[in-house]
Design a protein that fits this description.
Length: 323
């Protein structure tokens, strides 16, 4: 009976994960290799994708096989005049293309991404044409990308399409390496400047991340693409339009718990960042829960039956004591 009770406690903690609503508007988790959908919520909703765009930018740049040691001079044309986002890459800095790519992917710098598109062979118009062709080749039928940074709200896609993009990007060693670097020091005008990965889960205890990219604009909310390995399982996850970074992190944590269900390993604690004063994570309705696989639903029903058995056993013992 003790073993049964311990099993029920473990299964209840696992089942609780299934019941937790996901804060991201769109959620999709696909098993790598098989393409099996593990979790799904609004996977075909077309929404802005913010800096997730930069994965497409990187693929198109690498496909062009430009000289990665060639220095790119950051131009005033690369400055964000749409959202007026900040950058630690100064206008006039001359940086090797490989380091510009590092800045665009790891620290999601918009000036770096803009300069990559501007210096593409044939210029920005040729870059856009190459992006359009890449989208078509990947059969991303619900995707449109107009510029290289993701600042435009007209850069749109679905979680389903973005899994295709993430899968393609994972075949580029440069992309997987850069997006899983926790930090790097880049020479800017003769001075080493330290830049960090925008995804704080990269390098965090307990996380095995094979590729990563974050995104944020007011229209897109907090977005995330990751390829992760946990409990011997490999999967790609896409989270779109979370209301805060903390929501995005908790969604990712719940996905990892879901994938690890049934294993004996405990989840390491992850500190959730506090929201700034005046900000609040969006209210989550019960309808925000994701769809889970049929196997998970069967497992949950077994958990409920086992729980009832334990309760019945307790009630019988209590009744015998009071006789």
């Amino acid at each position: 009976m003790k073993k049964l009770f311990a099993a029920v406690l473990l299964s209840l903690s696992t089942a609780a994960v299934y019941a937790v609503p996901f804060g991201s508007t769109s959620v999709l988790v696909v098993e790598d290799g098989t393409g099996k959908i593990l979790l799904e919520k609004n996977a075909n909703a077309i929404v802005p994708i913010a800096s997730l765009t930069k994965l497409m930018t990187a693929m198109v740049i690498l496909d062009a096989r430009q000289d990665m040691d060639e220095k790119i001079e950051i131009d005033s044309k690369d400055v964000d005049m749409l959202k007026h986002s900040t950058s630690r890459v100064p206008v006039g800095a001359s940086i090797p293309r490989r380091d510009v790519l590092q800045l665009a992917l790891m620290s999601s710098d918009n000036r770096a991404a803009a300069s990559l598109g501007r210096t593409y062979p044939g210029g920005i118009r040729a870059f856009k044409f190459a992006v359009k062709n890449k989208i078509a080749s990947l059969q991303m039928t619900q995707t449109s990308i107009e510029e290289p940074t993701g600042l435009s709200p007209h850069n749109i896609s679905t979680a389903s399409d973005l899994v295709k993009m993430a899968t393609a990007a994972s075949h580029y060693p440069e992309i997987t390496r850069i997006t899983t670097d926790t930090k790097d020091i880049i020479n800017i005008n003769g001075r080493g400047v330290e830049y960090h990965n925008t995804n704080r889960l990269v390098g965090a205890a307990g996380w095995d991340i094979g590729m990563s990219k974050t995104g944020y604009t007011e229209e897109a909310g907090r977005c995330l693409i990751m390829r992760i390995t946990t409990a011997g399982k490999n999967a790609t996850l896409v989270l779109l339009n979370a209301g805060a970074s903390s929501v995005r992190v908790m969604d990712a944590l719940n996905i990892r718990r879901f994938m690890s269900a049934g294993t004996a390993s405990a989840e390491p604690a992850i500190r959730t960042p506090r929201l700034r004063a005046g900000l609040r994570a969006p209210a989550i309705r019960a309808s925000s829960t994701v769809k889970v696989s049929s196997a998970a639903r069967v497992s949950t029903r077994k958990h409920v039956k086992a729980t009832k058995a334990v309760k019945a056993s307790r009630a019988a013992k209590k009744e015998r004591r009071h006789r």
